[in-house]
Amino acid sequence: MIAEFMLQRTKANQVESVYKSFIKQYQDINSLAKARAHSIQKYTINLGIHWRATHFKEAAKYIMDNYDGQFPEDRTLLRKIPGIGDYVAGAILTVCFNRPEYVVDSNIARFINRFYGLQLTGEIRRKKPIIEKAQELFDYSDTRNLLFALLDFTALVCKPQKPECTSCILNQDCSLKSKYITPL
DNA sequence: AAGACGGGGAG
DNA sequence: CTCCCAGTCTT
Fold it and tell me: What is the pTM of this model?
């Protein structure tokens, strides 16, 4: 949850050092729940979107108060926790519990849009066809590794700009095939 | 359904 | 200088 909070609209290489020092300072959910707000801000100040900082303490406190420090394994319940939206809820259910649950982030949405030829534009993450295809995609026995694989794949091959279509292992099954890629 | 938030790195 | 990034919250 800590990692996913920090990664919201923020690049992974920007988060890494902050995350490491953060979890060293707050080694369990109870210490985070009791932390001072300005103390937490020292770590998150250079990540941008500052109102995110309040989520760390609020979420930790919420989980202590309502679930005695144990994360619920349910999307609806997870989403009631401050700072946790549909993405983080899905990430926790897959990465932590390997449950058969879907995850949609901007990268997975882009991959689905291309692979299935949906040709959606704008904030495609929020659109129904993307969600539905993601649910099909994550109907799988090992969603934790599927998520990690998708994140790596979309970072290295099915990139936002200049995707590596010619060397892509999914090229023959992709709606784009070997045609020249128009920017999506 | 659309706008705001934000520092930091890539082009 | 402009655009975008492992989204969520608020109209």
Answer: 0.92
- Burial class for A77, CB neighbours closer than 10 Å (0-12, 13-18, 19+): middle
Q: How far is the CA of A169 from the C1' of C10 (A)?
A: 42
- Which ranges of chain A have pLDDT less than 50? 180, 182-184
Is A4 near strand C, with its CB below 7 A from some atom of it?
yes
Question: Phi, psi at residue A86, to the nearest 5°?
Answer: -65, -35
Residues A11-29 as b/e (b if ≥16 CB within 10 A, e otherwise) read: eeeebeebbeebeeebeeb
Q: Which domains occur in chain A, in start order?
A: 2-96 (1.10.340.30), 106-173 (1.10.1670.10)
